[in-house]
């Protein structure tokens, strides 16, 4: 239990009499109390107070919010998703990953999307690709697995690879059939969106408010909170619905097209969104988009855009995916929701790369169903360009889950008391100089790991999901351990188990949690090299590039050495680096800069004293082109360059942009030029397109 001043004597009526400072203190206290009771109730199944006592705490917190809207924050019970943490559910590995969608906002991009598909599939210009357009439901996606006609498991999306087992909860939703007809394939995974109707959401919130329980920020949070209940009986009482729109693993194809597949789903007993429309051109996609947008406010459920999908399933297969999004689908989002409010102040936040980001503190305002009290101002140039002053009325926008942004200041509403913000030239946290390079918009703190804020952000990134993913070591613990002086840089994580006694004695830790944490840390001493490279937080190196670097260099030391050599751009190591697909001069520059810094070299060396990175094996080791370096040149006839490249990479090859001694095969199409000549000079094997296809 938090050891702060208790507010035992506080009543709803006396809340109005508090000063703002006391109200803030009370709010912090109440929130911590509520959070610890949530854990006791949901995670430990061991409530320590009665439901009525719990309800009183929540009511007091809501009463303070009412009396002091300034204190509304994402941390308050009213803002939290009404769901318990994921540890309460068993994990389910998806048979096929649950992908996300690329987004577009601009209608012009619809044409580009179609062109990309045409080019990838190498279609004739007049060969039309058929699509479906369907609403993008604002709910939570779920994968339902049926075996021999029976629903055997249901899982949330989770991180796309592993989700949470919510089978019992799903069985309470009447839109979801528990049996499929006999004609359904033996293994049949159906995916779609769980949602709550807007009217049901409002009714639920009224009931929750009356009972002093959590109210939800929007229907999506209400649906998520209702589904992810430990007690499925609670889910059963919540009005949840389901639209089916995609497949996972299917043992026998049930249609050649997505539209045909949706028809089968209706026959199987699922609800398919009735606004789904077949379209054959940019014009028809856009007119369906406008039609669905015009119906949006009248629909019973929230939608935030329209999803376009290639109808032919064999083409979907060929198009495949980039990172976690399919090439064959696209979400065309509705424009962002806008609102106006007052800018109360500007704070500076320090990011993991040291960037000083100005953050607008706003008079809290509801934007499209979400209360917003902070917005990003991006960088110092933005404040000047938009002439944003403290005290201004500003317009802001929010698009889906994107961080709210200030669009403009409204100078005609000024009273004269507004003040111009002067951007600091030193880090407000560590005091080191904050420098803006000539070619950069961003000012950066030069304190590195000496800067408390930067080191905390870097450490939070280091343990994030795609990096070391250490359960039990979240932002809160990192801040705490950092403040205690135990955790300054990544290698310190692996020294934490030496502090067993001190850690076990921390408030809310205890022996069991400490043991779990140390087990989680120790289990990460052997870890995939790609995760380690990503964890270093090098600018522009996302997880996909990190994996590519891992595949190419096979060890951290070899990557570091190559980058050190590559400081000299005439060194072959530099060519090798930029020959890696997706690595251009700018990314190469950031990698080289990172490893050139002595501080980072030390960081890597210390880290390697504690961990053993595991080098990846090539994706398909039996493939004839696995691990080979391939260069395409000239025009291919049967495949587009993009498809050929994607196919080669899928089979484990590395596709390079230029020919060198290390190249294994050069595939020459028609009109091939200097690359074919260079290959001949270097004695590299040259293949025609036909020979290449035969090899595959
Ligand atoms: S298709 C491979 N269709 O959007 C693509 N997704 O941004 C699989 N969503 O995780 C998704 N409505 O939660 C698809 N009609 C729709 C959708 C839809 C909502 C959600 C879904 C998915 C997310 C991706």
For this entry, give a set of tags.
D-amino Acid Aminotransferase, Chain A, domain 1; alpha+beta; 4 domains; DNA polymerase, domain 1; five-stranded mixed β-sheet; OB fold (Dihydrolipoamide Acetyltransferase, E2P); 696 residues; binds 2-(butylsulfanyl)adenosine; 25 helices
Write structural notes for this entry:
The structure is a single chain. The strands form nine sheets. A five-stranded mixed sheet has the order 2-13-10-3-9. A five-stranded antiparallel sheet has the order 16-15-14-18-19. The protein has 25 helices and 28 strands. It is globular. It is an alpha+beta fold and about 700 residues long. The chain is about 35% helix and about 20% strand. The longest helix is centred in the N-terminal third of the chain and has 24 residues, at about 20-45. Helix 17 (about 530-535) packs across helix 18 (about 545-555). The chain folds into four domains: about 10-80 and about 335-435, OB fold (Dihydrolipoamide Acetyltransferase, E2P) (Beta Barrel); about 90-325, DNA ligase/mRNA capping enzyme (D-amino Acid Aminotransferase, Chain A, domain 1), CATH 3.30.470.30; about 530-615, DNA polymerase, domain 1 (Orthogonal Bundle); about 630-695, 3-Layer(aba) Sandwich (Rossmann fold). The site of 2-(butylsulfanyl)adenosine has 15 residues, from strand 3, strand 8 and strand 13. 2-(butylsulfanyl)adenosine binds near residues 134, 246 and 329.
């Amino acid at each position: 239990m938090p050891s702060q001043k208790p507010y035992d004597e506080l009543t709803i009526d006396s809340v109005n009499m508090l000063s703002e400072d006391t109200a803030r203190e009370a709010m912090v206290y109440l929130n911590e109390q509520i959070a610890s009771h949530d854990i006791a109730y949901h995670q430990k199944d061991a409530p320590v107070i009665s439901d009525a006592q719990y309800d009183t705490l929540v009511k007091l917190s809501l009463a303070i919010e009412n009396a002091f809207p300034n204190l509304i924050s994402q941390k308050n019970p009213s803002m939290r998703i009404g769901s318990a943490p994921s540890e309460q559910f068993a994990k389910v590995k998806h048979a096929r990953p649950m992908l996300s969608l690329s987004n577009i906002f601009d209608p012009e991009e619809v044409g580009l999307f179609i062109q990309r598909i045409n080019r990838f599939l190498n279609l004739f210009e007049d060969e039309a690709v058929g699509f479906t357009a369907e609403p993008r439901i604002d709910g939570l996606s779920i994968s339902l697995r049926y075996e021999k006609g029976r629903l055997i498991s249901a899982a949330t999306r989770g991180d796309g690879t592993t989700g949470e087992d919510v089978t019992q909860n799903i069985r309470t939703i009447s839109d979801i059939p528990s049996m499929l007809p006999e004609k359904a394939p033996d293994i049949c995974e159906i995916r779609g969106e769980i949602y709550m109707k807007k009217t049901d959401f409002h009714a639920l919130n009224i009931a929750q408010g009356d009972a002093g329980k959590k109210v939800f920020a929007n229907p999506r949070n209400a649906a998520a909170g209702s589904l992810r209940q430990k007690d499925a009986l609670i889910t059963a009482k919540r009005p949840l619905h389901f639209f089916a729109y995609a497949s996972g693993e299917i043992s026998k194809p049930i249609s050649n097209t997505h539209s045909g597949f949706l028809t089968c789903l209706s026959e199987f007993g699922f609800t398919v969104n009735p606004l789904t429309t077949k379209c054959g051109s940019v014009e028809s996609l856009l007119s369906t988009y406008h039609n669905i947008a015009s119906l949006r406010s009248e629909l019973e459920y929230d939608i935030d855009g329209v999803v376009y999908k290639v109808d032919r399933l064999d083409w979907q297969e060929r198009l495949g995916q980039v990172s976690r999004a399919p090439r064959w689908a696209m979400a065309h989002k509705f424009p962002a929701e806008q609102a106006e409010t007052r800018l109360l102040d500007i704070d500076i936040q320090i990011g993991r790369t040291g960037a000083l980001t100005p953050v607008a503190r706003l008079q809290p305002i509801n934007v499209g169903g979400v209360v917003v009290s902070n917005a990003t101002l991006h960088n110092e140039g933005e404040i000047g360009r938009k002439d944003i002053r403290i005290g201004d009325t500003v317009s802001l926008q929010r698009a889906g889950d994107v961080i709210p942004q200030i669009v403009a200041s409204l100078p005609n509403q000024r009273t004269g008391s507004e003040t111009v913000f002067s951007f600091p030239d030193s880090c407000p946290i560590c005091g080191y100089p904050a420098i803006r390079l000539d070619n950069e918009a961003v000012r950066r703190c030069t304190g590195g790991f000496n800067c408390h804020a930067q080191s905390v952000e870097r450490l939070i990134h280091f343990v994030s999901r795609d990096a070391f993913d250490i359960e039990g070591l979240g932002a809160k613990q990192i801040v705490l351990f950092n403040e205690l002086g135990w955790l300054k840089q990544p290698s310190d994580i692996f020294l934490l188990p030496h502090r067993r006694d001190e850690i076990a004695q921390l408030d809310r830790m205890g022996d069991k949690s400490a043991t779990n944490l140390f087990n989680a840390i120790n289990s990460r001493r052997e870890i995939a090299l790609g995760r380690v490279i990503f964890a270093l937080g090098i600018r522009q190196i996302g997880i996909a590039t990190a994996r590519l670097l891992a595949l190419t260099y096979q060890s951290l030391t070899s990557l570091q050495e190559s980058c050190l050599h590559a400081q000299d751009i005439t060194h072959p190591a530099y060519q090798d680096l930029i020959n890696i697909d997706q690595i251009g001069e700018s990314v190469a520059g950031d990698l080289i800069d990172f490893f050139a810094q002595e501080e980072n070299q030390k960081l890597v060396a210390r880290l390697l004293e504690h961990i053993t990175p595991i080098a990846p094996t090539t994706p398909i080791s039996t493939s004839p082109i696995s691990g080979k370096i391939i260069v395409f040149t000239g025009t291919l006839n049967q495949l587009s360059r993009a498809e050929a490249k994607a196919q080669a990479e899928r089979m484990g090859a590395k596709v390079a942009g230029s020919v060198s001694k290390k190249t294994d095969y050069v595939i020459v199409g028609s009109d091939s030029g200097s690359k074919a000549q260079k290959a001949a000079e270097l004695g590299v094997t040259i293949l025609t397109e036909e020979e290449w296809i035969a090899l595959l």
